[in-house]
């Protein structure tokens, strides 16, 4: 019996606020939210669409203290413009020891790492 991933679950001290950041960053939609969790997905009508994975932000009072073991790699059309847009949304650049690389390492408002890659088209 094959498995499929239902959601990627991320602990958050403020699930609603973190979901708002990612909804704005990815142009996704919130499909469920209460005081303990917020679930986002690319579409409301087909959250189970092939290749789509929902992201669940669940409440955890513990602050993030170490580098994530999972993170999103984002592929924009324009890396510089996307980094600036993410900064306006509340992300910031971070140094996790990556050295001289052609991607930009950032953190979302709760400190979860994000890599903004160069476009594959150019």
Short summary:
The chain is an alpha/beta fold and 122 residues long. 19% of the residues lie in helices and 29% in strands.
How would you characterize this protein structure?
The chain is α/β, with parallel strands linked by helices and 122 residues long. It folds into 2 domains: 1-62, 2,3-Dihydroxybiphenyl 1,2-Dioxygenase, domain 1 (Roll); 71-122, 2,3-Dihydroxybiphenyl 1,2-Dioxygenase, domain 1 (Roll), CATH 3.10.180. Helix content is 19%, strand content 29%. It has 2 helices and 8 strands. The strands form 2 sheets. Strands 1-4-3-2 form a 4-stranded mixed sheet, covered by helices on one side. A 4-stranded mixed sheet has the order 5-8-7-6, with helices on one face. The N and C termini lie far apart (40 Å). The mean pLDDT is 90.
Element string (H = helix, E = strand) = EHEEEEHEEE
Share of β-strand residues: 25-35%
- Can you identify the CATH superfamily of the largest domain? 2,3-Dihydroxybiphenyl 1,2-Dioxygenase, domain 1
* Count of individual beta strands: 8
What strand order characterises the main sheet?
A: 1-4-3-2
Mean pLDDT: 90
Radius of gyration: 15 Å
Q: Stretches where pLDDT falls below 50 for ≥5 residues?
A: none
Q: Which class of the largest domain in CATH terms? A: Alpha Beta
Share of residues in helices? 10-25%
Query: How many individual domains?
Result: 2
**Assembly type of the shown chains?**
single chain
- First and last CA, distance: 40 Å
CATH topology name of the largest domain = 2,3-Dihydroxybiphenyl 1,2-Dioxygenase, domain 1
């Amino acid at each position: 019996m094959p498995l499929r991933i239902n959601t990627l679950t991320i602990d958050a001290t403020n699930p609603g606020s973190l979901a708002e950041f990612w909804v704005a960053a990815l142009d996704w939609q919130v499909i469920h939210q209460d005081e303990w969790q917020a679930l986002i997905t690319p579409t409301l009508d087909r959250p189970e669409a092939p290749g789509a994975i929902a992201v669940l932000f669940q409440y955890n009072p513990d602050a993030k203290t170490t580098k994530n073991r999972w993170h999103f790699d984002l592929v924009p059309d324009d890396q510089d413009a996307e980094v600036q847009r993410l900064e306006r949304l509340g992300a910031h650049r971070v140094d996790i020891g990556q050295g001289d690389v052609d991607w930009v390492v950032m953190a979302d408002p709760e400190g979860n790492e994000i890599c903004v890659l160069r476009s594959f088209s150019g």
